[in-house]
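TL;DR need structure tokens for one chain.
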Amino acid sequence: MSEVRKVVIVGSGPAGFTAAVYAARAKLEPVVIEGIQAGGQLMLTTEVENFPGFVDGIMGPELMESMRKQAARFGTEYITDNATSVDLSTKPFTVTTSEGTIRSLSIIVSTGASAKMLNVPGERELLGHGVSTCATCDGFFFRDQELLIVGGGDSAMEEAIFLTKFASRVTVVHRRDSLRASKILQERAFANDKIHFLWNSAITEITGNGKVSGTRIVNLMTGEESDVAAGGVFVAIGHTPNTELFQGQLELDGGYIKTSGSTTETSVPGVFAAGDVVDYRYRQAITAAGMGCMAAIDAERYLEATQH
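>> reply
TL;DR here they are.
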């Protein structure tokens, strides 16, 4: 593509696809570099029950496919490839994929984040079938079950407390003998009689036939192994924002792209960011979609202001 595009969206998922819907309807003729594994983290979830408008819930991949088609209907162009490099130092900006280079007057970054995983046997196979990285997304499906949560930070304690609304028992599995979480969250967790702790421990295997039924846990001090039954395993050991492409080019905050005030503007005028690549607090499909809408409107206004 030798022509200069108005807007290129790097990444897919709820943020990228929503940005594409808005940008396409504003006649910005967006190009979405959706990645080889398009659709973001929702491609790993089975049922989504908290996205407004779907009374009976919808499968994560189906929701992403609907958003993708909706953006295509208004003229969005897709490149099913990964961006390998970007140059934000000169205008027009350039984005390179294995298929070539695209030049654009504006860029929306929606590359998302990846949940850190335990990388133990059974984890990948059972992801979405009892292994989850989001308690607020999936907790509802585990009524009256015994659950394990892995981690010791704020998000692990928040998720453990949240899961007690549904679970009969929540056991926190933590590598150390003390938590990193803030004092107030620690106090709440310790005061909750549904929450129990396995200190100095790590999961070495997740077992189950089609769905999680248990785990193998090792005591890191003694080396002793035990089998612990569980209906679900929640991994809460953090997320890694997918910002490798933008290091040294955009201002980052703890690895996440920094945006200005209540906008989606980044440290480079004409570059906007939306979704989990920015948001370390909420990390929901609906908030990512909302930010995708904001980014498209911000890009449209930027282009109007700079092209006249």
